[in-house]
Amino acid sequence: MAQCVAYFKSLRPNGKVVLMGNSTGCQDVLGYCSFEGSRPLVDGAILQAPVSDREAFGFVFPPEDYDKNNELAQQMVKEGRADEMLPNHVSLSILGARCTARRWLSLTSPGPEHAGEDDMF
User: Fold this and answer.
1) How many whole angstroms separate alpha carbon 79 and alpha carbon 90?
2) Using CA atoms, how far apart are residues 63 and 41, in angstroms rounded to an integer?
């Protein structure tokens, strides 16, 4: 994202660059804006329809299925299979695509600490 910001700033040195995130893209914008390292600054940020996937998944899956899916993903990570695809029945019905165990856990962030990479809201 930093390369994109730098590119657009180079096209219009006196222009403004504003990042916009939609849905889970809001986490990317927040991550970019809150990073304390060196990267090109932006002039603004728009968060459109930010969502907590963890909370949304809780509405879609019955609690026992949600817990079972999280346990499966956690077991795969524990076994060193974090980048393997989960079975179709886990992610296909809600995401419309398959995903890895690592990605599933970043979205659902199970546990009391909810420390998933994408759980900012």
Assistant:
1) 18
2) 42
